[in-house]
Design brief:
The chain is α+β, with helices and mostly antiparallel strands. The protein is 41% helix and 23% strand. It contains three helices and three strands; from the N terminus they run E-E-E-H-H-H. Strands 1-2-3 form a three-stranded antiparallel beta sheet, covered by helices on one side. Helix 2 packs antiparallel against helix 3. The protein is globular and about 35 Å long.
Length: 83
């Protein structure tokens, strides 16, 4: 399990797990908009980590320059470096 602390968004923590084949097996946001963050996690579970990064990177929330999906892409990228 990799824990990431997002910057510039409502969520306070992202926990993700990626298996040896670079497939996302677990995803959890702490804080943020519950419906959206649970939905994002359900969508990325079973997805290849690099594909998730490509799809989520750069999504903006209300002009903040980032979003929970964007922060998840950063968390996934960092988790891949640790694997």
């Amino acid at each position: 399990m990799y824990t990431y602390f997002p910057q510039g968004v409502c969520s306070r923590q992202i926990n993700i797990e990626i298996d040896e084949n670079e497939i996302i097996t677990e995803c959890e946001f702490i804080g943020g908009c519950a419906g959206n963050t649970v939905g994002i996690c359900q969508l990325v579970k079973g997805m290849n980590a690099e594909e998730a990064i490509k799809r989520l990177r750069g999504i903006d929330c209300r002009g903040r320059g980032t979003s929970c999906p964007d922060q998840l892409s950063i968390a996934i990228e960092e988790a891949l470096e640790v694997i």
